[in-house]
Amino acid sequence: TDPSGASRIPPQFSEEERVAVKEALKGAIQIPTVSFSHEKSNTTALAEFGEYIRKVFPTVFHSSLIQHEVVANYSHLFTVQGSDSSLQPYMLMAHFDVVPASEEGWEVPPFSGLERDGFIHGRGTLDNKNSVMAILQALELLLIRNYRPRRSFFIALGHDEEVSGTKGARTISALLQARGVRLAFLVDEGSFILEDFIPNLKKPFAMISVSEKGALDLMLRVDMTPGHSSAPPKETSIGILSAAVSRLEQTPMPNMFGSGPMKKALKLLANEFPFPANLVLNNLWLFRPLVSRLMERNPVTNALVRTTTAVTIFNAGVKVNVIPPFAQATINFRIHPSQTVHEVLELVKNIVADDRVQLHVLRSFEPLPISPSDAQAMGYQLLQQTIQSVFPEVNIVVPGICIANTDSRHYTNITNGIYLFNPVFLNSQGFSSIHGINEKISVQNYENQVKFIFELIQNADTYKEPVPHLHEL
Ligand SMILES: CCCCCCCC/C=C\CCCCCCCC(=O)N[C@@H](CCCCN)C(=O)O
Ligand SMILES: [Zn+2]
Ligand SMILES: [Zn+2]
Fold first, then answer.
1. How far is the C-alpha of 440 from the C-alpha of 427, rounded, in Å?
2. Mind telling me which GO cellular component terms the entry cites (predicted)?
3. Which of 167, 225, 235, 310 has minimal Cβ neighbours within 10 Å of its Cβ?
4. Mean pLDDT of the chain
5. Once rounded to an integer, what is the mean pLDDT over residues 141-167?
C-alpha cells in the first residue's frame, strides 16, 4: 500500500504472461497496416488490426470501466473511468499504421514478426506498434489483477500518423474537445532512451521531448518559353532552379544552439562527460561557438540545432531537344522551435534572391509550444519518476525536441503538456532502422516498455503535487 492508501501492484509477470506478451506483439507486426499516401492505405489490414486487439486484450474490451470507440473508421479511442473524478485526466497515445517496407535488405521479412537472437523483427517494432501493444497490454495486465484506476485516462491509437493523422488524431482531438475534455498531459512517441549517440558519452540517458519541430513544404518553380534546343537561352529553367536549390543547400538556416529546451539538456548532461568535454560543456559562455559547430557535424545533432533543409523532389525536362517549359523542386524544411514559418520563408526569399523563381507554400505548420519540464510539471515529473524506477541504470533524464512530427501536434487544443517519449533503448543503428531496414526490438526492451506503462498508470494515480518552496510562495 502506498502513502495515498491505494494498493500498489508489483510489475511482476508470470512465465506464461511473458510469453503471451511477446506473442501478442509478433501477431501485431504480421498485420501489414501500411499507409502508402494520403489516399492509399491498406484498409483491410487496418480493420483486421481492430479485430486483433479485441481478440488479444479481452479484459480491456469487456471492462465496465472502459468505453471503446472506433473513430474515423479505423482509429481507436478508449476512455478509462477513474474512481476519483476530481483528478484531471491524461492520455496515452500511439499509432499502428506503418511506412511501407519491401523485403530487400531485411534479415527477415518485414511483416514476419519473427523472433531471432532475442529480438522481435519487423516494420512497426519501434514505430510504433510496440507502443500500441504495450499500452493495451499493460492495461490488460492491470485489469486482470483487479486494478481500479483512480485518475481517468484516455488511450488514442491512430491509424494514419504516417500520413499526417488528419483523419484519426485530428478527429479524436475534436471529439474530446467537443466533450469538454482538458488533459493534464499526454504521452506520445518521438523520443527514447538514447545510447551511443554522442561520442564519449557512455551511459544511456532518457530524452523526453517537450516540443516538436514545425514543417514547411515549399515548391520552387521556374517557368520559361519552350523552344528548340539548338539555339538555347543563356540559362534554362533547369539551370536557374538548380542554382537556387544549390544556394539553399549551401546556406543552412541559422544555428539556434543554446536556445530552447536543449539548453537545459546540455546543462544536465555536462557532468556525464569525461574531461575535457565536461569542462567545455560547463563553460558554454566561452565554448559556445565550438560546441555549436560540433553539433553540426552529425545529421541528427545538426537537426537538433537548426531548421533543416531537405530537397526531396525535383522535376523538369520533356525531351532532349526541347528547352524545358518549367522546372520545379520541392523542399521539406523542419522548423526549429525557436523559429517560425514566416521567419523561414523570409530567409528562403533572401537566399534564393531571384525573381524568376516562384515560391509556393504547399503545407506549413508552426513548431509545437514548449511543454513545461519544471518541478510542477506533472507529466514530465511522472515520466521521470517512472524512468528512474523501471530503469535504475538511467540516471539522467533531459528535456529535448523531436526532430520529426507525431500525432500529438493535433492535441494542442486540449493540453499544454505534450511529452514525447517511448521507454525503449535506442542507438544510432536503431534510429536508422526507423522507416529503414531491419527495424527490431529486443524482447527485454519490449517487456520493459509494458512494465513502464504498468507503473506509469499506477504512478499517475498516486501523484502528489510538489509542495512549493517557501521562496516561490
Ligand atoms: C543530444 C543528442 C542526441 C539526440 C538524438 C536524437 C535522436 C532522435 C530520436 C528519435 C527520433 C525519432 C522520431 C520518431 C518519430 C517519427 C515520426 C515520423 O516519422 N513522423 C513523420 C510524420 C509524417 C507525416 C506526414 N507528413 C514525419 O515527421 O515525417
Ligand atoms: Zn511513428
Ligand atoms: Zn514513422
1. 12
2. extracellular space
3. 225
4. 95
5. 98
State whether residue 316 is helix, strand or coil.
Answer: strand
Yes or no: say if 324 and 233 are a contact pair by the CB < 8 Å rule. Answer: no
Query: Does the pLDDT at position 5 exceed 70?
Result: no
Into which CATH architecture does domain 15-209+368-470 fall? 3-Layer(aba) Sandwich (3.40)
Catalytic residue status for 97: yes
Domain ranges of the chain: 15-209+368-470, 213-365
Is residue 198 lining ligand 1, measured as CB closer than 6 Å?
Answer: yes
pLDDT at position 2 is 53
Which of the ligands is closest to the CA of residue 34?
A: 3
Ligand 1 atom nearest the C-alpha of 400 is 1
Enclosing H/E stretch for 43: helix 43-56
Q: What is the C-alpha to C-alpha distance for residues 236 and 224, in angstroms, rounded to an integer?
A: 7
Summarised one tens digit per residue, pLDDT across range 390-437 is 999 998 999 999 999 999 999 999 999 999 999 999 999 999 999 999
C-alpha distance from residue 407 to each of 13, 93, 157, 274 (Å): 31, 8, 10, 38
Angstrom distances, CA of residue 449 to CA of 192, 193, 445:
11, 11, 6
Substitution candidate for ligand 1 out of 98, 161, 266, 334 with most atoms within 8 A of CB: 161
Domains 15-209+368-470 and 213-365 in one fold: no
- The per-residue pLDDT for range 147-158, each reduced to its tens digit, is 999 999 999 999
- Nearest-atom index, ligand 1, CA of 163: 25
Cα separation, 415 vs 195, in Å, equals 30
Q: Is 314 in the pocket of ligand 1 (CB under 6 A)?
A: no
Cα of 161 vs centre of ligand 2, distance in Å, is: 7
- All three cell numbers of 45, joined, read 489490414
**CATH of the domain spanning 213-365, picked from 3.40.50.720, 3.30.2000.10, 3.30.70.360, 3.20.20.150:** 3.30.70.360
Reduce the DSSP state of residue 42 to 3 states and report it: coil
Ligand 3 centroid to 286 CA: how many Å?
A: 38
Euclidean distance between CA atoms 435 and 14, whole angstroms: 34
Residue closest by Cα to atom 23 of ligand 1: 162
The average pLDDT across 334-363 equals: 98
Q: Out of 127, 140, 161, 439, pick the active-site residue.
A: 161
Spatial contact of 461 and 151, defined as CB atoms under 8 Å apart: yes
Q: Is 197 in the pocket of ligand 1 (CB under 6 A)?
A: yes
Which stretches does DSSP call E strand in 87-204?
90-95, 115-116, 119-121, 153-158, 186-188, 193-194
- Cβ–ligand 1 distance for 130 under 6 Å, the answer no
| Cβ–Cβ < 8 Å for 411, 177 | no
